[in-house]
Amino acid sequence: MQLAIRLVINAIALWAAAAWIDKISVYVPPEWSAEWGNWGKALVLLIVAAVFTAVNAVIKPIVKLLSLPFVILTLGLFLLVVNAAMLWLTAKITEITDYGLRVDGFWAAVWGGVIIMLVNWVLGILVPDRD
What we know:
The chain is mainly alpha-helical. It has one domain (2-126). Helices cover 75% and strands 6% of the residues. The chain has helices at residues 2-20, 30-36, 38-58, 60-66, 68-73, 78-94, 106-126, and strands at residues 24-27, 100-103. The chain has a two-stranded antiparallel ribbon. Helix 3 (38-58) packs across helix 6.
């Protein structure tokens, strides 16, 4: 149940980033839009959120450990670059399909990472873990 909630929270965060940043978009194939309408976009967001969650669970801890000197040197600001890299990597992974996340440029990824971080933080407060 907790995984499903986190997946929906990530989908909402990705939707917010795509809505607020011009160079971030969620691509839905036209046949999905014609057949399912808004449900097609919701399905694509959930798929992208699953990829984003997997990237953050597997790759992000390794990148954070390897970049620890830069994080310390910049007093944590380098974590913005790490978040941007995870968003960009999610976009690259989903680009191999007919649907997915599109990120055009480094600064779009940085601002998208900031928005995703803030939305996850706010929704994480509203929906706390059962730990």
